[in-house]
Design goal:
By secondary structure, the chain is an alpha/beta fold. The chain folds into 2 domains: 140 residues, ATPase, nucleotide binding domain (Nucleotidyltransferase, domain 5); 186 residues, Nucleotidyltransferase, domain 5, CATH 3.30.420.40. Helix 1 packs across helix 3, helix 6 packs across helix 15 and helix 10 crosses helix 11. It starts with a strand and ends in a 24-residue tail after the last helix. Catalyzes the formation of acetyl phosphate from acetate and ATP. Can also catalyze the reverse reaction. Its main location: cytoplasm. One of its GO terms (molecular function) is magnesium ion binding. InterPro entries: Ac/propionate_kinase, Aliphatic_acid_kin_short-chain, Aliphatic_acid_kinase_CS, ATPase_NBD.
Length: 406
Amino acid sequence: MIILALNCGSSSVKYKLYLWEKRQTLTKGVVERIGPGDVCPDHRTALGQIIETLTTGENAVIRDLSEISAVGHRIVHGGEKFKNSVLINEEVLEAIRSVQDLAPLHNPPNISGIEAAKEAFPNIPHIAVFDTAFHQTMPEKAYLYPVPYEWYGMYGVRRYGFHGTSHLYVSCRAAVLLNKKPSEVNLITLHIGNGVSLTAIKGGVSVDTSMGLTPLEGAVMGTRCGDIDPAIIIFMIEKEGFYAEQIDSILNKKSGLLGITGKYTDRRDIEKAAQSGDKRSQLAIEIEVYRLKKYIGAYLAELGSVDALVFTAGAGELNWKLRERVLENLEGVGVKLDKKKNEKAVSREKEELISADDSPVKVLVIPTDEEIVFIEDVVAILEGRYEKHTQFTYSFEDPKYKRKAE
């Protein structure tokens, strides 16, 4: 069974072709610079390029499109309508359209990708996997905002959370490493890439997460501001006369680490500049670490007892200095880092325990694998054995599971 996984962004399409029986990635890639007047005008053209790459030339990996059994689509925002992955039909597609105003930067290209793929592959199943689904277990006290309650009923204003497949994967793997079932662990998972989100996991399910109605809320990110006083927006509109689109662009694309440094989004560049004496880069590091510590403290208080902290995604997996700074002086709450283990844990493939042997709260570095969650959901739906993630058992929950390098 061959599965094509598509992740359609506003200006790019990432893809992976996966052979299920051998748990093997046949090929993967990305088409970038999509848009009117750009290299690739639209998602239909991008998908045509992907199909040509898969089937023609010396790098072809399949002979015919009929070899593909299904297409899986990453959907950023499912609102409250979707608590698990689903087979896409017209009703589902319309429901995804109905919540696109909650993710105007993400859902429209997701929808364009579905429409283009259904045209190219009209006779095979198409399945939607939602970033928000994992967080639908949050209680009302965590997902409702203290704003007029009517906003929730009328417009769906609430916390949704994102990076769900990543938090799901690493929480299941953490349970394995702790010799427990997922339902037996309390965790704080830190997905630290260009986008950053933390999740409090109690008994294996999400009970709170740092991103909110949109991916803008929460920790300091590469270009997103994270938590700010909302009155800042009104203040700056009065001072500068910004339109809504300008404010949106500034907070999403010109803030965060970029906003503080004025130059950098990549933490490697920030670290290098900070070591050279750049004060704003030093400040960016301090602010990011401070915000991450605050979330860890809040989630420790909410969970009561925590089995482990889990670092994942680009910086979470590779930036040992960031991890060390975040965990500094947390011994009082049971987190004791082994600095030598931490420095050595810089792999995108290997799972590591980096806490001291006597640390009451363990610290793990687990490379994320969102795609395997994606693929397993698709296959399980095709085989008629899929259930929502709280009842479904993934292959990577098995202690004998070994992740294959790509």
